[in-house]
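Quick one:
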Amino acid sequence: MTRRSVILGTGSFLPARRVSNAELAETVDTTDEWIVERTGIRFRHIAAEDETTGTLAAGAARAALEAAGIESTSIDLIVLATATPDQTFPATATRVQTALGIGDCVAFDVAAVCSGFLYAVQVADSMIRAGAHTRALVIGAETFSRILDWEDRATCVLFGDGAGAIVLEAQESDEASGAGILATRLHADGRHNDLLYVDGGPSTTGTVGKLRMKGREVFRHAVTNLAAVMGESLEAAGLSAGDVDWVVPHQANARILDATARKLGLASEKVVVTVDQHANTSAASVPLALDTAVRDGRIQRGDLLVLEAMGGGFTWGAAVVRF
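Output:
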């Protein structure tokens, strides 16, 4: 028997405002056909003025806690992945802690952009395996609409707002077939900063800045890096692509999802795709897709999952999970 982090429940939260490509085309020089052909995106959700990354994260966390059937006060660790925090400091995780009525726990943010949720999962899993914590909320939440240049049609059509969360619990599991996080692998390569970044920050411009991206170069790196890290994580777990029931990928672009699946020899039917409905929600996209597939019945207990993502930095990672 070994101590593992087991997913007790999943949750998500999306702003009420749902924007179609056609509506976006009323103010941006683009068309529904252009967006769908290049990205597969049809809709995205945009946060209202009174919504923040913290409020979205708290909504997703409540849904995950309800699915897990536990009280928020039993949580002793919150790790929140975001590139769009409510404030420079304190951590948005502490705002979620307060919103959930948790009096005392460890709470902090992780910044790894679109890979942030995978980074947060490994951090929480390591702390649980070490015996420091028993129950954790791992959240990915973003309000990317606040850092988009709405005059840049190449980027503003790609992103949306939202949050997803999971509850992890320490359990003793059988090494071979038990539930839990089996393996995680993370990477970063800062040499590619200028391919995907925000042109502002507290210690540089003193402003929030706007997202900038060289899409073609990002696409090329994404397909190569994601296929490699998925293979690496499966090897670490002593498994192969043939053992996988579902791939739950970062929802960046439908073409990236297809190309990555082909590179690994996986059937497209095994890939959870929500990019058409949510667009790219950065750190929120993997837990959003996971919750969608759990709630619609595709993902069942005992299924083997591979979660993967790549984001600015570049950062990238994957996790093998027995649900």
